[in-house]
Write a structure and sequence with these properties.
The complex is a heterodimer of chains A (358) and B (319). Chain A is an all-alpha fold and 358 residues long. In chain A, 69% of the residues lie in helices and 2% in strands. Chain A contains 12 helices and 2 strands; from the N terminus they run αααααααββααααα. Chain A has a two-stranded antiparallel ribbon with strand order 1-2. The N terminus and C terminus of chain A are likely disordered. With 319 residues, chain B is an all-alpha fold. Chain B has a single domain, classed as Orthogonal Bundle (MetI-like fold), CATH 1.10.3720.10. Chain B contains 15 helices and no strands. In chain B, helix 4 crosses helix 6 and helix 4 crosses helix 15. The N terminus of chain B is likely disordered. Classes of the chains: A mainly alpha (358), B mainly alpha (319). At the A-B interface, helix 1, helix 6, helix 7, helix 10 and helix 11 of A face helix 8, helix 13 and helix 15 of B.
Chain lengths: 358, 319
């Protein structure tokens, strides 16, 4: 990340021109996107293979479906009906086709289609992740700016120390501490569940009730704290880097106010990598929601997955795995493509992103 | 400047003396003594690790000896609180188990799992990295693609998945007995990529050095060259990664155990203790969960600080 916003000459040959869509740059771009797409599909197929292997070879699917007193003939018939005797490629192809249509079979534990369970739980996880991401950005970016502008201030040192401790504290311990302080000792906030939710179509939201918002506070801080410290350190490092560049010195020499220099010129060029990293972290926020959801008994997909592991509910495990992998691949793909589109270094004559404020 | 440079020694004792002298005379020691934070971290880390290793000798009671548990003493608060007893410095849990003893033994298990996972990840990662870097070609491409894919998923998710699969394959009783090895395997596999990438990078540099070429011309088998000649030269950064990885491995184990998919309550690690204590948070017995948590944080923080210092001290660019 270092030096991303520094004045670097644009690499020759990989030049992409967003305003002049001349043929070479355009085809290079399309080639890049196609290559990335093929890569993503390969990764998804690999993950699907793991999910499929889980499905078919961990435990006996027939045993999981029928009772003890089913006869051998019935089992053999079921085996034939389920297509378990088909050759491997046929079975795998069927799994992929079904998975692509969001059909992951029936949960062993709940006796309901897995996709229904996931859809039911998705709003809780997504709202939690969104709140955590907002918290991380809205607190992390100002803290990063402050620590960069007041490097020697005692408050900056306090922020940095807190962030170091924040990185060393495991997520679940942060949750427990917050529960102990704000729910048990002070009694201000609820410690588990989503509070009252409002149903809008199939989406159940906790954003619309006071109760639901209060229940959201502790889990989203727990989930967002790590990302917050990450964003703070990133903004600080990038900002310090940018403040050292010539165009900032020039802006100061022009007599611009400190405010205009810091926020108009420096901050703008700091935010590109911040947005990239935040995007990439979105996937791990959803994955780490597993821990937060367990601590706060938050009825999301992560809690469903943990319970699936405890009870060896293979279809739910496989479906969650494929879903999370899909999210990761999708986010990585979007960020990569956006990166090529917006990265100032790849623009001809962009002056390495030093063009802010002109 | 060092004595070993001027007085070559041949005796085994001489080698030891040389090594000690080099350590004493080195920049590493100098930078260590110049950093108070690092000294404190080292003292804390060594103290905790020493206490964990010596747990059977120094712990007040044996938390695994069920016969000695006194149910009447359950939920005794720490000694400085009202109702506390000097026999139980940090209080007791729901079964009258002494928290201090449970923490010492728990730390022992946490550290064992952490260290074993690090060693496993290191062997796997260094081996594959050396292979990829030295062999090159499609072997390299294959190993590195797998590494890239794995790196795009959080380690904890991969460890969870491996643990889940093990639960599916193994019968319940068997899984209970081998849970600790399953966790070591899961954390090890989820952490090999860092080692592999670093070792591959340095191996590709070392491969073109003259000593490798010379060994090659002498007709030494490529495997021998890679292991005996290249490997020692690429191990430096691996030690730094291993230190930081130890902290991560301890956290991962604690997280898995807290989630209920790690070590069983019969072999409680720090994470298991925190999970057990979490049930009593609301009835006011906070010490059952907070003290193991504090022990975990102290351990992880001190090891992390040591790792950071080691990274800076070994990095010639920062000198």
């Amino acid at each position: 990340m270092r030096g991303l916003s520094g004045a670097m000459p644009p690499p020759i040959g990989s030049a992409h021109r967003p305003r002049r869509w001349d043929l070479p740059a355009g085809t290079a771009m399309i080639a890049f996107i196609v290559r990335r797409l093929i890569q993503s599909v390969l990764v998804m197929l690999t993950v699907a293979l793991v999910g499929f292997a889980l499905f078919n070879y961990v435990g006996d699917p027939v045993n999981n479906l029928v009772g003890q007193d089913t006869s051998m003939e019935d089992r053999a018939q079921l085996r034939e009906d389920l297509g378990l005797n088909d050759p491997f490629p046929v079975q795998f192809a069927r799994f992929v086709v079904n998975a692509a249509q969001a059909d992951f079979g029936i949960s062993y534990r709940h006796g309901r289609p897995v996709e229904d369970l996931l859809i039911e739980r998705a709003p809780a996880t997504l709202e939690l992740s969104l709140a955590a991401g907002l918290f991380a950005l809205l607190v992390g970016v100002p803290m990063g700016i402050y620590t960069a502008l007041n490097r020697r201030g005692w408050l900056s040192k306090a922020f940095l120390t807190i962030s170091l401790i924040g990185v060393s504290l495991p997520t679940f311990l942060i949750g427990i501490l917050l529960i102990l302080i704000f729910a048990v000792w002070l009694g201000w906030l609820p410690s588990f569940g989503r509070g009252t939710t409002v149903q809008i179509g199939w989406w159940s939201t906790g954003f619309l009730t006071w109760d639901g918002l209060k229940a959201l506070i502790l889990p989203s801080i727990t989930l967002g704290l790590f990302q917050m410290t990450l964003i703070m350190r990133l903004v600080r490092a990038e900002m310090l880097e940018v403040l050292r560049t010539d165009y900032i010195k020039f802006a100061r020499a022009r007599g611009l106010s400190a405010r205009a220099v810091n926020f108009g010129h420096a901050l703008k060029n700091t935010l590109v990598p911040v947005i990239t990293i935040t995007g990439l972290q979105l996937g791990s926020v959803i994955a780490f929601a597993i821990i937060t959801e367990t601590v706060f008994q938050w009825p999301g997909m992560g809690l469903l997955f943990i319970q699936a592991i405890e009870f060896v509910d293979i279809p739910v495990m496989a479906a969650y795995l494929v879903l999370v992998a899909f999210l990761f691949v999708l986010i990585n793909l979007i960020v990569d493509i956006l990166y090529v589109v917006v990265d100032p270094r790849l623009r001809v004559g962009g002056g390495g992103g030093a063009g802010g404020g002109h | 400047m060092t004595r070993s440079a001027t007085e070559p020694t041949a005796t085994p004792m001489g080698h030891v003396r040389d090594a000690l002298w080099r350590a004493w005379d080195s920049d590493i020691l100098y930078s260590f003594l110049r950093s108070p934070v690092t000294i404190v971290a080292a003292v804390v880390a060594l103290g905790l690790i020493g206490a964990a290793v010596a747990a059977p000798l120094i712990s007040p009671t044996n938390p695994f000896a069920l016969a000695t548990l006194d149910l009447m003493a359950a939920f005794t608060p720490p000694v400085w609180m009202e109702g506390g007893s000097p026999a139980y410095l940090l209080g007791t849990d729901d079964q009258g188990r002494d928290m201090l003893s449970a923490i010492l033994y728990g730390m022992r298990i946490s550290l064992f799992v952490g260290a074993a996972s690090v060693v496993f990840a290191m062997i796997l990662g260094v081996g594959l990295g050396l292979l990829a870097g030295y062999a090159g070609g499609w072997v390299d491409a294959l190993i590195m693609r797998v590494a890239d894919v794995q790196l795009s998923f959080p380690a904890i998710l991969i460890a969870l998945l491996i643990d889940g699969v093990a639960r599916g394959i193994l019968p319940r009783e068997v899984h209970h007995d081998v849970a600790i090895w399953v966790i070591i395997f899961a954390i090890g596999v989820s952490g090999w990529v860092q080692y592999a990438r670093t070792v591959r990078g340095s191996t590709m540099v070392e491969k073109n050095r003259e000593y490798v070429m010379a060994a090659h011309i002498m007709g030494i088998h490529p495997v021998v060259i890679a292991v005996r000649h290249v490997l020692p030269n690429v191990m430096g950064p691996v030690l730094v990664i291993a230190t930081i990885h130890l902290a991560i491995a301890v956290i991962t184990e604690a997280t898995l155990s807290f989630l209920g998919v790690g070590l069983p309550p019969t072999e409680p690690s720090l994470g298991t203790l925190i999970r057990i204590g979490n049930d009593f948070l609301f009835s006011g017995e906070w010490w059952i969960t907070i003290f193991p948590g504090v022990a975990l944080v102290l351990l992880v923080l001190s090891v992390n600080l040591l790792g950071d210092w080691l990274r800076d001290a070994l990095n010639p660019k920062l000198r």
